[in-house]
Amino acid sequence: MMRLLAPFKIAARALRRNKMRSLLTMLGIIIGVGSVIAAVSITTGATKQVEDKVASLGQNIVTVFSGNFSSGGMRGGWGSAPTLTVEDSRAIKNEVDNVVAVSPEVRDRSQILANGQNWNTQVLGESPDYPQIRDWDIVNGAMFTDGDVRALSKVAIIGKTVVDQLFPTDDPVGQTLVVRNIPFKIVGVLESKGFNLFGQDQDDVVIIPYTSHMRRLSKRTFVNSIMVQAADKESIVQVQTDITTLLRDRHKSAEQDFTVRTQLEVMQMATQTSRVMSVLLAAIASVSLLVGGIGIMNIMLVSVTERTREIGIRMAVGARGRDILIQFLIEAVTLSVAGGLVGIALGMVAAKVVAASTGWPTVTPVIWIGIACFSSAGIGIISGFYPAWKASRLDPIEALRYE
Amino acid sequence: MQTRPVIQLTEIHKVYQTGEVEVRAVNGVTLNIMPGEFVAIMGSSGSGKSTLMNMIGCLDRPTSGTYFLDGIDISTLDRNERAVIRNAKIGFVFQGFNLLSRTTALENVEMPMLYNHARITNAEQRARAIKSLELVGLATRSDHKPNQLSGGQQQRVAIARALVNQPSLLLADEPTGNLDSQTSIEIMGVFQKLNEAGITIVMVTHELDVASYCKRMIILRDGKIRTDEWVAKRLNAEFELNKLRAAQQAVKLA
Fold this sequence. Notes:
Number of strands of chain B: 10
Number of domains of chain A: 2
Number of helices of chain A: 13
Low-confidence stretches of chain B: none
Mean pLDDT of chain B: 91
Radius of gyration of chain A: 33 Å
Strand order of the largest sheet of chain B: 6-7-8-3-9-10
Helix content of chain B: 25-40%
Number of strands of chain A: 12
Helix content of chain A: 55-70%
CATH class of chain B: Alpha Beta
Shape of chain A: elongated
Structural class of chain A: alpha+beta
Oligomer: heterodimer
Strand order of the largest sheet of chain A: 4-5-10-7-9-8
Order of helices and strands of chain A: HHEEEHEEHEHEHEEEHEHEHHHHH
Distance between the termini of chain A: 34 Å
CATH superfamily of chain B: P-loop containing nucleotide triphosphate hydrolases
CATH topology of chain B: Rossmann fold
CATH architecture of chain B: 3-Layer(aba) Sandwich
Number of helices of chain B: 8
Strand content of chain B: 25-35%
Largest sheet of chain B: 6 strands, mixed
């Protein structure tokens, strides 16, 4: 059969003959698809924002927290108990597969002095892997080295907020920063990362070698946590399991005295809300598309009755039942797909308007455009089938006599 | 070697079952129509002429008997096969014109070609439709819609549509029933011209003067053929039309 275009020609002519009705019928689908696209664009934008925040924590991160400390009924938070050591971190780096970077972390808050100013900030002890793990560039100067870690060097890199507070006009690199009476030489400045998922200013930080922190500042033998970077997304879960096994083996305590969290878990928690929203929207959307489909079926039934005589004429000149069925199906599908396409365009415009007026980022995923196209075509086929089948079963003699 | 009949009906019966009553609409019709004939089938209402017409037009199947159209046995074909036959072999002209409204004359004439078995290019469809409209003298009105055309012009469009697939048979059901007498003669003139060009025409009518333009006249009564004879005093549409015009002229001059 090479007459593929003929039914489209017939359907297009029929729809053109009833422009206003075709438009009103499409409106149901336009509104349905349009609201789906707009809603999806807005929620996807919101999810994307959350994901970006989570990604700002770093790439493929697995974090080991020490257990909680309890004494006489008072319980400290995660990281308060002295259970993780530098040796643990070394073991993770050497014995666990697919680990590309490890940084033992020691946290402290201190008053710092520099340039005749003072400022209270977070002082972190880290390894030179830290910027890589956090996906955080040094914009000025350079990261301290493994040599600095071994030598317990008094060097520091600082975040953007600290620069703004202590060195509003000068270049901080090469200057001295005093923490608890110990002078540290500033060797680098981190690029600005902004606020994290929990609203904390990530740039308000001073980072020194973890050895210097433990031996010179905090005088600790334990680390608060260990940050580990897995080779890729796929190996994160395996790395998490391997670290758990390794540390249980090393610590040999009855109770697990540490916790291993992955970035995926954080991501899942953060995107939970938007997923619930998406499901809700999909439910509302399917209802409105159902209503649109019923509208199409209704109009197609009216159209079949109204055009009984036309069907009779077409059958008399040689249209088979199948030709009539296809003609009405194509009319229904043309209505719904045209409505779907207009709906997609309007939905995207609506999302842009929302984005412009509220400042929320909106993203229209390509897959949803595909879903909208396919489901509107599906609605056309489903709602057009019964009227089309009815038309195809007409008796030409009866249909020709129909007034 | 004799030419084969276009229509060959043998002992055709059509029985309708309406409740308890059995209606024998067509009751044993045997009939041959040869290529190039121009036949009028006449009869009062209830004579079975419409039923016979529907069967000749492959819209309906006989209860019993055989029907060969152009050598093809129609009585065994199903719905869809009959549709293909109608498309290829039969051109219909109806009393009520039956054009698609809000559709131009050209598109109306192109319509049967949309259902052709073989693919026809758009350009060829157009060319054939225009040629068909030229045959009925309406080429200049091809972009008019039915509501912009007179009854006679609409019927010409319908004839053009019936001719576009070059059928073996033109089947006309009371083609002048909705037309005034002068337009009726004009339409009969179109049929006579087409018949002279070799097209076989079968026409159902109940008007004797319309039947007089045909070559052969068959009268049905109670589902049976009562008379089947050549038209003795055949009228010529062109001549009758001139006569009518002269008469009108005389009235105006008087």
